[in-house]
Amino acid sequence: MMKLYLRLFFSIFLLLPSLYGRDFEVRDFPIQDGGRIKPLDTYARNQLLAFYGKRSVKHEKLSAIDWVFDLILNPEKGGEKKVFNIRNPEVTASLRLEWTNEHKYSFNEVILGLKEQLELVSEFYNKPDESRTIFEKQFLEIYFNALRFKEITYSLSCLAPFIEVNDSLLAEKLNTSPGKAVSYAHLVKQFHTLTEMFLTVMNKPEEELSQSDKELNMILLTLQHTSSDDYAQALKLIPPSPLDETGTWLSPWELMDGRPRAPYQDKILNALEKYLSGRALGDENIMNSALTDYEAGISAITIGKPDINILKKETWVNKANLFYISVAFYLSAFIFLGLSWMFHQSKYLQRISAGFLGLGLLYHTYGIYLRMFIMGRPPVSTLYESVIFVGFVTVVCAVIIEYFRRDGLGLFVGALSGAIFHYIGFGYAADGDTLGMLVAVLNSNFWLATHVTTITLGYGVTVVAGFIGHLYLIQMIRNPKNNTLLKSINKNMFGVTLIALFFTLFGTILGGIWADQSWGRFWGWDPKENGALLIVMWHVMMIHMRITGKVKPEGFALGLIMNIIIVMMAWFGVNLLNVGLHSYGFTSGIARNLFLFTALELITGFGTYYWAQSRKGRLVV
Amino acid sequence: MKQIIKIVSSPKIFVYTIIWLMVLVVLGTLAQRDIGLYASQQKYFSANITWLGGIIPVPGGRITMIIMLVNLTFMVLFKQNLWKIKKIGVLIMHIGALLLLIGGGLTAIFSSEGNMVIEEGAQSNRVDDYHDMELTIINTSNEILDKYTVFDQPILGKGNILSHENLNFNIEIISYLRNCEPLKRTAPAGFHYKGMLKNFRLSTLRPEKENNRNRPGITYRITNSGSSSDGIYGLFLGQSVPQTAVINNQNYEFIIRRKRTYLPFAIELLDFKKVMHTGTGIAKSYSSEVNLIENGIPRRVLIEMNEPLRHKGYTFFQSSFIEGPEGEATVLAAVKNYGRSFPYISSIIMSIGLLLHLLKSIPKLLQKNPRVAE
């Protein structure tokens, strides 16, 4: 146990040097994908996530980047790797795959089945998306995954050393040494030296061909064969020429068509070729020198040069998994808080718990900061980010409360909600790239920073209020006689509710103003707007009911708990309705979790409420 | 009198209305799944009376909010203990809320929204309403001048009889269909069916969720024309062959179309631009470069997402675009909104009020645990 903590704790110090002042690595190669320049590492992880369901090949302990390069340098072996995760027995059956407990299949297995079923694919493809069954959707997904897998496999085949030249005469002419493997690109570049020889070979009868002639023929055949890979343009690693205004990056194969190349494009291509040959030989020196060349090539880009530091940061974030570390700390904080309760409110244990909560918050904050830094936008712009940010808000609130109270209430709220939101976030992260680009209407940093951040703050504080509501009811059950304690929690509860009202109200109105600015109407009774309005109205109702004496503190606590349900519905539930201008954050499989959560909150909320009331009743008697 | 004020301004009324409003919001949101946003808004939020399940009348969103407004107004005006320095935050907040409701009311009553479609190189001063239709009758007898007579949607109700001094006949509305499709008749039509209805009939369709995908239709009877043109006619939106009739030597054309508003200025589309996130199909931005032409003088304006053009009470937003073989056309949403500034003002007021109140009461509310404090 202790060892685990130590490892966690020191992990950041081990990682830090790798963030600052480390060398440029293959992971950091810039690639254009999904509308932005990202490190190749992120690309590889996302691809692997799509095929395999995880961001590294777990059963072989292979990182995503190594997987990509192994695949490129050894397509046959790569095709045998079991990286296709198929969990639907219907799909495996129709692909004639054996149903195993690992659910993992290789590309070669999958493609065999797909080739037999091309008619089925086209039938599913021509259906409108909403009328496809789950089976049909997954089948299509496998099909497109397989296509992309193949494209990635051959996307660098023009640069990989796949062609061996054994004949010394040819080798000399082709500017290489006998027995060494060279790339398609290299041969194409040197080929003019062989034109004469080639013309004579063409006219020679078969029996007069020398060894060199025969090998030349072989090489020609291989070149022709390789050139048919030019459809494989998945890896957009090469920056555009300075004349290109669109800013669209290119794949190496696109540059093989004889178009003029900018000097930096040549540099990068050559460095990539060198890296691949070094990697194929396992020669560290060649690889390192290739990396230096690559970095020089990137620095030579004239327009739209990617910032290598940002790329390095992103690969670091990919590896560091800061949110896994922070959730571990939150859980530890919760465990130690529980222990402190067992051991008669031990001050010592509680302090350890507070320390863990603080450390978790530190990692959490740093993770959010790095994401903002990489994308250059405010903390919340996607559903995933809203989850992470609400978690952050709840912990910050909890820390403030704990600072004032020093009795573990804040620790309880912070550790629990911090951990829960992290887990929800992990669920979203498993869906795909969490650093995606935004559609036009959302692409406004000003409004993202104001409206979205405020409303998510409001969600967070509302959740905190709900947690305090839970705690109030629990305390009422545990010590109904402790009036001073209950009174102070009650006051906190009200204060937090007012803050929550402020953020939700202000955030909702800001949202209306944004809508007025961009759609021309302040309010349109769209589901997302209605959701936010419901939260505000619920707050307002609870506050008025409390002021008019219609609810007692325990009723108020119950109301706050119910508001968590409303928050969840407004936050995730409205996306299930799929109507209106706001339905951009759709995710599948959320309905069930939402239902479970609502049921749980209803049962615990009302259960503790009636229990608390009965305890109070007995006290009066 | 005092008694009445006390009752009308009671916070209890507020609590009940807000609970009811929440119920309406939930119902109205869920209903959007089935009947779409516009219909649900009409049924739950803009209505005075909402018919639950079509049979049970309950207060609709509008009346609920009016009650809330009255309650709030009385509260602010007559609640003595609110006008104290101690409660300044609460008071300011409630005044802000009051302004917000008033602004909402103004918008609901007066605002209108429509579409403006302009092709590249062309100009337009016409706004087509999103939702409202109009029945237009054009007298084309005079070669130099067409004479238009326009009836707005609200009077196109079933059984209404329309007449106008321009027209030497009466029109009796037989039915107005929110969504319909013309179907070819299988059996010959009765002798009283004229024009398009001789060969087609208008079949009612279930309204679409998105209102602008509906194709409204209308059937009407021409009476008192004193000619053989008396009979039943039909029209639908986007009809390709215009419905004509000759009545007393006058040629008439009948059209049902989106309600048109003509602006006192024109907009000319110079260039429409669509920018994608490089290498993807995700749109990064849309923009229209236009000339705003008023009194013959053009002014160059760029309309972008989140950057509308405001002029003479109208606001033009980049809403959509059409890509055709002959070029691009931009779709601008044109909105006229009178209560625009209310939300801005009231949100500032409410936030100030709430902040004041928070600053005053937070120190008390974030109290230390007494046990630890000792």
Descriptive notes:
By secondary structure, chain A is mainly alpha-helical. Chain A is 68% helix and 5% strand. Chain A folds into four domains: 33-154, no CATH class; 161-307, no CATH class; 321-437; 452-621, no CATH class. A two-stranded antiparallel sheet of chain A has the order 1-2. The relative contact order of chain A is 0.06. Chain B is of the alpha+beta class. Chain B has three domains: 2-110 and 339-373, no CATH class; 114-126 and 261-336, no CATH class; 129-259, no CATH class. Helices cover 30% and strands 40% of the residues of chain B. Chain B is built from six helices and 18 strands.
The termini of chain B sit apart by 52 Å
Query: How many whole angstroms does the radius of gyration of chain B measure?
Result: 27 Å
Largest interface: A-B, 73 and 70 residues
Assembly classification: heterodimer
Q: What is the rounded distance between the termini of chain A?
A: 48 Å
Offer a quick outline of the entry:
The complex is a heterodimer of chains A (621) and B (374). Chain A is mainly α and 621 residues long.
Secondary-structure topology with pairs:
The complex is a heterodimer of chains A (621) and B (374).
Chain A: H1 2-19, E1 30-33, E2 36-39, H2 40-52, E3 56-57, E4 62-63, H3 64-73, H4 75-80, E5 82-85, H5 89-94, E6 104-106, H6 107-116, H7 118-125, H8 134-154, E7 161-165, H9 168-173, E8 180-183, H10 184-190, H11 195-203, H12 211-227, H13 263-281, H14 284-299, H15 308-320, H16 322-342, H17 347-375, H18 383-405, H19 409-429, H20 445-478, H21 483-518, H22 527-547, H23 553-577, H24 590-620
Antiparallel strand pairs in A: 1-2, 3-4, 5-6, 7-8
Helix pairs in contact in A: 1-15, 2-3, 6-8, 13-14, 15-17, 16-17, 16-19, 17-18, 18-19, 18-20, 19-20, 20-21, 20-23, 20-24, 21-22, 22-23, 23-24
Chain B: H1 2-8, H2 11-45, E1 49-52, E2 56-59, H3 61-78, H4 88-110, E3 112-119, E4 123-139, E5 147-152, E6 161-162, E7 170-177, E8 180-184, E9 200-204, E10 217-223, E11 231-236, E12 243-247, E13 250-276, E14 283-294, E15 297-304, E16 309-311, E17 314-324, E18 327-336, H5 341-365, H6 370-373
Antiparallel strand pairs in B: 1-2, 3-4, 3-18, 4-5, 4-13, 6-7, 7-10, 8-9, 10-11, 12-13, 13-14, 14-15, 16-17, 17-18
Helix pairs in contact in B: 2-3, 3-4, 4-5
